[in-house]
Amino acid sequence: MEFFERFMIPHPSFLIYVSMVLIVLVSVALVAVITYFKLWGYLWREWITTVDHKKIGIMYLLMALLMLFRGGVDAIMLRYQLSMPENTFLDAQHYNEVFTTHGVVMILFMAMPFITFFFNYLVPLQIGARDVAFPRLNNLSFWLFFMGAMLFNLSFVVGGSPDAGWTSYFPLADNEFSTSVGTNYYMIAIQIAGIGTLMTGINFITTIMKMRAPGMTLFKMPMFTWSALIANLIIVFAFPVLTVALAMGTMDRLFDTKFFAIGNGGMDMLWANLFWVWGHPEVYILILPAFGIFSEVISTFARRNLYGYKSMVWSMIVISVFAFTVWTHHFFTMGQGAFTNSIFSITTMAIAVPTGVKIFNWLFTLYKGKIEFTTPMLYAVHFIPLFTLGGVTGVMLAMSAADYQYHNTMFLVAHFHNVIIPGVVYAMLAGFTFYWPKMFGFMLNEKIGKATVWVMSTGFLLAFMPMYITGLDGQARRMYTYSESTGFSTLNMVSFVGAGIMAVSFIMLVWNIWYSFKNSPRNIGSDPWDARGLEWATHTPIPAYNFAITPDVTDSTSEAFWDMKKKGTQIFKGEIKKIHMPNYSGVPFIMSCGFFLLGFSLIFSMWIPAIVGLIVILAGMAHRSFEKDHGYYIPEEDVKATEKQYEKRGAK
Amino acid sequence: MAKYFPLGQVMGFVFSLILTGLALLVHFTDMSMKTGMIVLLVTAFLQAGLQFAIFMHAGETKDKWSIYSNIVYGFAMVIITILGTLLILLWDM
Ligand SMILES: [Cu+2]
């Protein structure tokens, strides 16, 4: 019995018990359904072992939507708790656990897989490649991310959730003050997912540098691919800092080292420093691909090419350097001198300039464009003013002297939701709607889609504008309740209503998928939006090999498909030949199970299963280095037969 | 035969031995902390550059532009991070 006691929840509640029962029931039901329909083999062969960038992308998408739901439920709970003074729905400990989980899930397990979905799905298509540079590494990246996410989500039913905030500052995060295994979960689950992200970064830089179609110079790449290149470059340079910081934090918690702990020369502020050395570039890792998606959407529906392509690219390159020079603005009040704060104030304001350049480029693209208000475009049009508002409050926060007033209040919370929701989430949903027909062969309903955007923006404004006001009035962030006399209650109730409306918009999104699945016509061809980029030049659904003939864009611009449609530029030159493709493999999945076992065992300081997990990982690596895997060829006849079928169906 | 002789590599090897020897001097002679650190830092970075260019073949392919710019970028980011951290936590605390 003693062995099992460590898995108990230190601070249980009725809701957690309900979740436990639900998790068990859903898992049993899932296993039953899969077994009943005999889907295990299909799942293993077609999805778990896949190296196809499109399928891996769709798995990322699924995870992102699931985690959006999880993080969203947390958000509603937080807002409900604060909607009334002296509310007892959550106690202080549970409130801490919920906001910690909400932050980690939304940033690392929702936004990150959402952008990785777009990297995976779009980059090879936009550069005319058949897959990524390291297809099997890509599979491993996904499963590491998946295991990290599952491990983190397990925390609230086994052993207890992390409760030190998504920033997990020391000394609070150390054993002395965080006694449950919750923060171990934080350190190790994020570590595993982060290693996956780092691999994604290396993979996509190589893919973009090495596998572009003939004739595609760097300055002919579609804008989303550019944003992916810069974002992955930032990943490769920022994530190692997180990896090291998490490893040091893990050692502090498991082996009593004193990197960040108090005493024996430990330096708690070093954690905050390292966390934000990663944390600020992370913001750009999320927002640059979002900008890339908006660029694709805006130029498609303004029916003209993107204004200022070169300045767009250069502003991103400048951002990739500046992103690493501003991190101190997250802790202006930590005690460093005015000199340091002034330097970082200035760099922070300077980084608003390249971002502003991009906003103006979109406005100039819209100006004189023939704007067509589709759902993706509506997201983009709502994004511009809402995001600008978030940017302006960001510049307010960047003034270090004034920051002493704003910091750690709801003003800050309002600000970063104000950039992340219209910036990242709107972009993801715009891209999701825009590329849906390319993925699944039918359109999402436009009426429901547009209504969703309006409902979402209404909910957003109601939820977050009041926070600016209560924040300036002194409502502290992460405070689990307040008294009637503070006068915060009305605005917090408005906020809760807004959060509820945003939840409605999420339900509308899910309903739209179901409704369109039932009702949308399937004969939409391969170019339903009259789009411009190379990714639309292939069939729908996309064949495994993407393009039967490798496109040659020597004579085209960055909008190769548009040139082909409007100017008749040839991009598919030459004959159909046999196509070389990578083999599927189950080893990465087994390795990531080893990572899960290793991680879970470390969290509970169980050394023997941890060693077993480590051996599985090392065995997987050894297997890979001795394995001869040259992929396989799809014979010429098969490619031709597939292409004929598409012609028969009238696609293209 | 002469054109098959890897002159660059041999010179590189000799030069890297010299750099190692110079760095060792810090241990065996009685330098001040400051001079010692300067010698170590300078020889270390020269050594790293040498290894990149000669033994890791950084400059031998068509994509040397992207390899070098990547190294310079990484180097700049590391310097910024280290100096910034020292500034925040030591020099201006
Ligand atoms: Cu920042």
Q: Would you kindly provide a written description of the structure presented here, covering whatever features stand out?
A:
- Chain B: Belongs to the cytochrome c oxidase bacterial subunit 4 family.
- The complex is a heterodimer of chains A (652) and B (93).
- Chain A is mostly helical and 652 residues long.
- Chain A has helices spanning 2-5, 14-36, 40-48, 53-82, 92-126, 135-154, 182-210, 223-255, 268-301, 309-322, 338-366, 375-398, 400-406, 410-440, 446-472, 489-519, 560-567, 587-603, 607-626, 636-648; strands at residues 579-581, 632-634.
- A two-stranded antiparallel sheet of chain A has the order 1-2.
- Chain A is globular and about 70 Å long.
- The model of chain A has no long low-confidence stretch (mean pLDDT 91).
- Chain B contains 3 helices and no strands.
- Chain B is flat.
- The chains are: A mainly alpha (652), B mainly alpha (93).
- The interface between A and B is medium-sized, with 22 and 15 residues.
- Bound molecules: copper (II) ion (CU).
- The site of copper (II) ion has 5 residues of chain A, from helix 9.
- Copper (II) ion binds at residues 280, 283, 326, 329-330 of chain A.
| Number of alpha- plus pi-helical segments of chain B | 3
- Residues in β-strands, percent of chain A: under 5%
Largest binding interface between chains: A-B, 22 and 15 residues
Label the overall shape of chain B.
flat
Global structural class of chain B: mainly alpha
CATH architecture of the domain at 1-285 in chain A: Up-down Bundle
Organism (chain B): Lysinibacillus odysseyi 34hs-1 = NBRC 100172
Enzyme class (chain B): oxidoreductase
Family (chain B): Belongs to the cytochrome c oxidase bacterial subunit 4 family.
Catalytic activity (chain B): 2 a quinol + O2 = 2 a quinone + 2 H2O
